[in-house]
């Protein structure tokens, strides 16, 4: 890619979108396999489900912290080395798991090393990256990239499940780490780039900003203090760029009610996501259903997240972010009720497919909502904070799900609480103010 201003034949953002798709494809399939490993590891080492779930809690807590760190580093230094270093940590964690023999090693390799690499190799960072390369149809572009996550779960979970049955979970863990290391590093150094303006390009669909006087002038958001038009539409010549509110920092965003309401929503979202993806296979096999069928349910859960994620981005472009989120959590209330009142092959399939549809709806909406409310300059850091809380909720509820099972013998109480929390998420979303927030004092300054 040239800095001379020469327009490339194919906009490089499309290559970045494709690379993000492949990396998420691999990482989703690999990451989701932990749910299939719960019972084999318990059988090999005699660990309880709460002990294994505790390692998953540690994993997601470290992941949550890594999201804040990688989000901040990404905003400052760009994506290439962040993704590369994260890939090494993510892959080495799985490679070392193949040789572990004790619980503390599981906590170290999976809970710490692997999780430290997740922050730079998963959805939040790639959402921020795609958001910088696409201004027009940003929601759709983010959704297409995130589609890799859905396909990865669908195609790779059955593959890794068969590998576990044939050669054992340790051999499977080794190969997952090697494949991730080689493929992700190759894509990172070959394709991934940072802000398009650093390479003489504008984001896809970006239009020239016009100062008063009508002269065309293209300004990055850091220069003007104004966020780009998220829809890529025309901007009136009579409006000065500097008249719009500048992008908010995380500290400034924390002073708004909308950020905390959405943070509660994402805590609840992460709680249910992790509970289901970690414990679905053990839950289903507890009722006498084969491990192959249970793995298929988890795989289809991943695939059915594709239509949800593909609809979420364009829906946000067309009608805003709140309604898709409200519908998502209302569906979850219904689905948890299905599992509470009915157990069996058909109810479990209904739950898996329905929950899969809701699984990643909030992933592109986090990026689009943060951009719409607070601008894109600090989108990585703000999104990282929100997703940190999302993952902390997931880790905590995944662990407590294992504790509840060990104490009661089933997951009914965990699912009942999850249904109530989903109802709370509906209410919180309703009160989010889905419009651009101004920094403190901006109106007073504008008045003069």
Main sheet makeup: none
Distance between the termini: 45 Å
Radius of gyration: 22 Å
CATH class: Mainly Alpha
CATH architecture classification: Up-down Bundle
Question: Can you give the helix content as a percent range?
Answer: over 70%
> How many individual helices?
18
List the helices and strands and how they pair.
Elements: H1 12-32, H2 34-45, H3 49-77, H4 80-97, H5 103-118, H6 123-133, H7 138-167, H8 169-190, H9 221-224, H10 250-253, H11 257-286, H12 291-319, H13 322-341, H14 345-358, H15 362-374, H16 379-408, H17 412-430, H18 442-447
Helix pairs in contact: 1-6, 1-7, 1-8, 2-11, 3-5, 3-16, 4-5, 4-8, 6-7, 6-15, 6-16, 7-8, 7-12, 7-15, 11-12, 11-16, 11-17, 12-14, 12-15, 13-14, 13-17, 15-16
Question: Describe it for me?
Answer:
This protein is mostly helical. The protein has a single domain, classed as Growth Hormone, Chain: A. Helices cover 73% and strands 0% of the residues. The protein is built from 18 helices and no strands. α4 packs antiparallel against α5, α6 (123-133) runs antiparallel to α7 (138-167) and α11 runs antiparallel to α12. The longest helix is centred in the middle third of the chain and has 30 residues, at 138-167. Residues 1-5, 209-242 and 444-448 have low confidence and may be disordered.
Entry summary:
With 448 residues, the protein is mainly α.
Main attributes of the structure:
448 residues, Growth Hormone, Chain: A, 73% helix, globular
């Amino acid at each position: 890619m040239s800095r001379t201003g020469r327009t490339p034949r194919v906009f490089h953002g499309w290559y970045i979108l494709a690379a993000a798709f492949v990396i998420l494809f691999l990482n989703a399939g690999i990451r989701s396999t932990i749910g299939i490993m719960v019972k084999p590891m318990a059988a090999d080492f005699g660990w309880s489900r709460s002990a294994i779930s505790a390692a998953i809690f540690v994993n997601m807590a470290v992941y949550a912290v890594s999201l804040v760190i990688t989000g901040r580093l990404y905003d400052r230094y760009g994506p290439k080395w962040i993704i590369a270093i994260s890939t090494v940590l993510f892959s080495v964690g799985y490679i070392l798991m193949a040789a572990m023999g004790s619980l503390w090693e599981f906590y170290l390799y999976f809970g710490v090393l692997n999780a430290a690499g997740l922050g730079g190799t998963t959805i939040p960072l790639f959402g921020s990256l795609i958001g910088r390369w696409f201004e027009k149809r940003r929601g759709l572009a983010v959704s297409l990239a995130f589609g890799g996550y859905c396909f990865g779960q669908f195609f790779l979970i059955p593959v890794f499940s068969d590998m576990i049955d044939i050669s054992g979970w340790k051999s499977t863990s080794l190969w997952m780490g090697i494949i991730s290391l080689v493929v992700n590093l190759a894509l990172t150094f070959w394709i991934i780039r940072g802000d398009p303006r650093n390479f003489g390009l504008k984001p896809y669909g970006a239009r020239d900003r016009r100062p008063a006087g009508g002269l065309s002038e293209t300004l990055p958001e850091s220069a003007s203090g104004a966020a780009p038009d998220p829809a890529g539409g025309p901007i009136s010549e009579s409006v000065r760029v500097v008249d719009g509110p500048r992008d908010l920092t995380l500290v400034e965003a924390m002073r708004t009610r909308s950020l905390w309401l959405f943070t509660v929503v994402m805590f609840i979202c992460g709680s249910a996501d992790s509970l289901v993806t970690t414990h679905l296979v053990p839950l289903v096999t507890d009722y006498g259903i084969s491990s192959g069928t249970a793995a298929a349910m988890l795989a289809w859960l991943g695939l059915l997240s594709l239509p949800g994620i593909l609809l979420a981005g364009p829906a946000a472009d067309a009608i805003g972010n709140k309604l898709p989120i409200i519908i998502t959590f209302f569906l979850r209330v219904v689905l948890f009720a299905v599992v509470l009142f009915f157990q069996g092959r058909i109810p479990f399939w209904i739950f898996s497919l329905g929950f899969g549809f809701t699984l990643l709806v909030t992933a592109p909406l986090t990026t689009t909502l943060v951009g719409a409310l607070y601008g894109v300059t600090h989108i990585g850091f703000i999104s990282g904070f929100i997703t940190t809380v999302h993952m902390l909720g997931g880790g905590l509820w995944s662990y407590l799900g294992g504790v509840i099972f060990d104490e009661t013998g089933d997951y009914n109480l965990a699912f009942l609480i999850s249904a109530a929390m989903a109802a709370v998420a509906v209410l919180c979303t309703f009160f989010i103010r889905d419009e651009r927030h101004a920094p403190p004092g901006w109106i007073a300054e504008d008045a003069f």
